[in-house]
Design a protein that fits this description.
5 helices; single chain; three-stranded antiparallel beta sheet; 9 strands; globular; alpha/beta; six-stranded parallel beta sheet
């Protein structure tokens, strides 16, 4: 039986691990993703890589030293590598086409960068009808002027997990069970605590016991 699931590894490229400014918890991230990949392969789950191509002088400019996928998680012969130029792994790529060919409806997502390519790809996958699992301890970013990397990661786990994805820690991903999923594409039901009621055409959204008006029933 063909599995419905694929492991999607986003932008884990050499340039993200430069000694002068490596991604947050870089060694732990590589170890976690490597373990996910190994277990997925052992269970017969397809591993799909996304590789970002930046512009001239970009850290991830094609054929530059930072562009290749990191050797700790390098693809094996025959594994699919999708090249992209936007934060959305579907935009301008063959990702959706390839998923359709292989009957994939469930994506397990890991990689870099939390608030850009990981976030955008999860949201787009949800909008396209995929069932998305985000590995909450297998994506990362950098500190910013306003927030530490750990805060950004925790925030996006909370926001994405409220509506767009199912959150799981890496150790809880059971690839043997995932391999038994039938090959069918469907839309998951949101896990958000937001609900909707129609009051004569004026929507209201409810969260944590209170109601408030919102455009088309969505929280403002």
């Amino acid at each position: 039986m063909q599995s419905n699931t694929a492991l999607l590894i986003i932008d884990v490229q050499i340039g993200m691990f430069e000694e002068s400014d490596p991604v947050h918890q870089s060694d732990e991230l590589l170890a976690t993703i490597n373990d996910l990949i190994t277990r997925a392969r052992d269970a017969g789950i397809p591993v799909i890589y996304v590789q970002h191509s930046g512009g001239d002088d970009h850290l991830l400019e094609p054929d530059s030293p930072g562009w290749p996928i990191h050797p700790a998680v390098v693809p094996t012969k025959g594994e699919l590598v999708i090249h992209k130029r936007h934060p959305d792994s579907f935009q301008g790529t063959d990702l959706e086409h390839e998923l359709g060919i292989h009957g994939i409806g469930h994506l397990i997502v890991a990689g870099i960068q939390t608030e850009y390519c990981v976030d955008t790809t999860c949201r787009r996958a949800y909008s396209l009808g995929y069932d998305v699992t985000l590995v909450q301890d297998a994506h990362s970013t950098w500190d910013t002027k306003y927030l530490e990397a750990s805060q950004i990661i925790n925030h996006h786990n909370q926001v994405l997990g409220a509506w767009f994805v199912t959150l799981k820690e890496a150790h809880s991903i059971e690839f043997d069970l995932e391999a038994q999923r039938p090959s069918t594409r469907h839309r998951r039901q949101p896990t958000s605590r937001w609900e909707y009621r129609d009051y004569g055409g004026r929507g209201a959204a409810r969260c944590r016991g209170g109601w408030r008006a919102g455009r088309e029933g969505y929280p403002e």
